[in-house]
Design brief:
alpha+beta, Glucose Permease (Domain IIA), 10-stranded antiparallel sheet, 14 strands, 32% helix
């Protein structure tokens, strides 16, 4: 490409530097309102500066304001975070599903008895593990542990018929068994028997079924030595035919605390036993719906 003549270059520079006067005149009065001296070079520089400023403003609005979300194809930051969280949760759920699947497969093997001396089992990572020489006979330690747990359960609060407690508006109420023995007479409101009779060995202690306050501790002709306890939730428990009472009116008791000794006092009795009643909001309940008396 041929180079420009130095004379032509100087001529072009002089043209760019030539001064022109910009004049604004009132068309009616021909008064001069504004005038300025301009050169083509100044005009080009001014236009370039305005273009740069406009570009900077537009880029700033796009980068630092929510306007960028209206650009087609641009993804929202929250959308990207939600997509990432969804992917992580999906991965975690898939891993948990594999673990549960492995658990159910192993449980199925155990229930079906297919785990023998040489059996394979599925682990949580989907791999299989070979078991050899397994012994499923009951060990001495296992038998001792079972006996210990069963002996402790005899003195634990019973959760029998928790559904009945919830239906009566007594969720979470766990009754302690007052005494374990043989139920000789069950609850029967039709004949006026509003409790249960539990026969047990003479001299055994009777326990409070729930936390409360003793509101009666006296002797009656038909019930003998009777003790009544007021509990929360408008509950009252009654213990009759005792040989001795261990608590007085006003005493605070807790579930499982000894309150009397089983006996044969009163006219309506034919041997050492406990007549136990449970009342809720002034109505009698069948104690066997909430407490297991069998030893």
């Amino acid at each position: 490409m041929a180079k420009k003549n130095p004379k032509e270059r100087k001529k072009l520079i002089r043209k760019l530097r030539n001064k022109y006067r910009l004049v604004i005149i009132n068309d009616a009065t021909f008064d001069e309102r504004f005038s300025a001296f301009l050169t083509p070079l100044n005009v080009i520089a001014g236009v370039a500066l305005v273009f740069v400023i406009i570009t900077a403003v537009v880029v700033s609005l796009v980068l630092f304001t929510p306007l960028k979300e209206y650009i087609p194809g641009y993804s929202d930051t929250n959308m990207r975070l939600n997509a990432l969280n969804a992917a992580l949760k999906a991965d975690s759920l898939e891993e948990a599903q594999d673990q549960y699947q492995a658990y159910f497969v192993n449980l199925q093997h155990i229930l079906n008895g297919t785990i023998g001396k040489d059996s394979t089992d599925v682990e949580g990572d989907g791999e299989t593990k070979v078991y050899t020489g397994l012994d499923f006979s009951v060990s001495k330690e296992d038998s001792l542990l079972r006996a210990e747990i069963e002996s402790k359960e005899q003195y634990a609060l019973t959760t029998q018929n928790a559904t009945s407690s919830a239906f009566l508006g007594l969720p979470g109420v766990l009754f302690f068994t007052p005494i374990r023995g043989t139920v000789t007479s069950s609850f029967n409101s039709a004949i006026g028997h509003l409790g249960v009779d539990v026969a047990a060995q003479e001299g055994e202690a009777i326990k409070a079924v729930y936390d409360g306050t003793v509101i009666m501790a006296s002797f009656t002709s038909d019930g003998g030595n009777v003790i009544q306890i007021q509990h929360s939730n408008n509950l009252i428990s009654i213990y009759k035919h005792n040989s001795a009472l261990l608590k007085n009116v006003g005493d605070q008791v807790v579930a499982g605390e000894s309150i009397a000794i089983i006996g044969n006092s009163g006219e309506l009795t034919d041997g050492p036993h406990l007549h136990f009643e449970l009342w809720y909001n002034g109505s009698p309940l069948d104690p066997q719906d909430f407490i297991a008396f069998s030893s």
